[in-house]
Amino acid sequence: MVEPLRRSNDCSALSARERYIDAPTAADFTIDQAWGSYTSEEHARWDRLFRRMETILPNRACESFLSALDELDLSRNGVPHMGRLSELLSKRTGWRVVPVAGLVPDTVFFDHLASRRFPAGAFMRSEAEFDYLEEPDIFHDIFGHAPLLANPVFADFMQAYGEGGKAALERGQLPNLARLYWYTVEFGLIRESGAVKIFGAGILSSPKESVFALESSSPNRLGFDLERIMRTTYKIDAFQQTYFVIDSFEALLDACYGDFAPRYERVRSARDLSPSDVLASDHVIHHGDQSCVNE
Ligand code: HBI
Ligand code: FE
Q1: Which pTM does this prediction carry?
Q2: 20 to 30 A from 138, CA-CA: which of 6, 98, 205, 294?
Q3: Protein residues whose CB sits closer than 6 Å to any atom of ligand 1
C-alpha cells in the first residue's frame, strides 16, 4: 500500500471516493467523515461485507479480534461512525481512528500512528469492487484494523511502528520496515492455544484469503523472524506465498524492541528473498507446495 492516490475511473456521477477526494483536507490529511452522506446502498454494502466475514472468521480470527468486534460495537448495522468508535477505542488503549480520503504520504501515516491515531479511508468501495480493491477503504481499514487496536500490546506495537517508520524514512530503510508491517499488521498469523489463527487486516477483510491463509496447502507458514521478514519482498495483488506466524503479541513487541540500526545494517548487506523462498534456517510450520500461484 505505497501507491499514490489515484482518481478512480468509475464513471458514475460522483463515486464515493470522489466525494472525499475533493473535500477540504487538513495539514494532517484528515477530513470530515460526513457520516450522514453515506447512501443506503453503502450502509447495506457494509452489512453484506460484515456478514460475509462473520460466517468465516469464528475459529479462524484470533480471540482479540473477535471479542473486539462486539466491544467496539462494530457488529451493529451500517457504516461505523469513526468519532463514536474512537470514543470506545480510546477508553481501552488511547487509540483513535481518523478519517482520510485514501492513502496518505508515509511521513503523515507514521506521525498518526506514533500519536495513536489510525488513518482510515472514509470511502466505501463500489459494488464492482465488492471482492477486491487495492486502496484501503473503510471496510478494510475499520473492520480489518480497528479491532486489534483495542488490544493493549498490539496497540503499543502499532505506535512503536509509527515511531520506527519515521526513523526508517531518514535512513532510507523504509522498504525493509514496510515488509514488517506487511507480514504482520496486514498478513500476519498468530499461534493461539495450539492452533494458528489470523490477525492480519489484509486477510481478515478477505473471505477467500482467510480460508487460503490457514487451510490451503499452497503457501508456506513460517515462524516469525524479524530480520528474515525485513529481507522478504511481497506482492500486493495476489494471495501471499508465505505467511509468518507470531507466538503472541508480546513476542512480536519484544522482537521489535530496541535499536533497529544494527538490524538495518545486517539486512542491507544480505540479499533480498522472494515471497516463496524457504531457507534452511527457517522455522517451517508448513512447507507450501505453491500449487495456487496466481500471477
Ligand atoms: N495511508 N491511509 C493510509 N493507509 C496506509 O496503510 C498507508 C498510508 N500511507 C503509507 C502507507 N500505508 C505505507 O507506505 C506504510 O505502511 C509504509
Ligand atoms: Fe491495511
Answers
A1: 0.93
A2: 294
A3: 1-2, 100, 103-104, 106, 109, 119, 121, 136, 178, 181
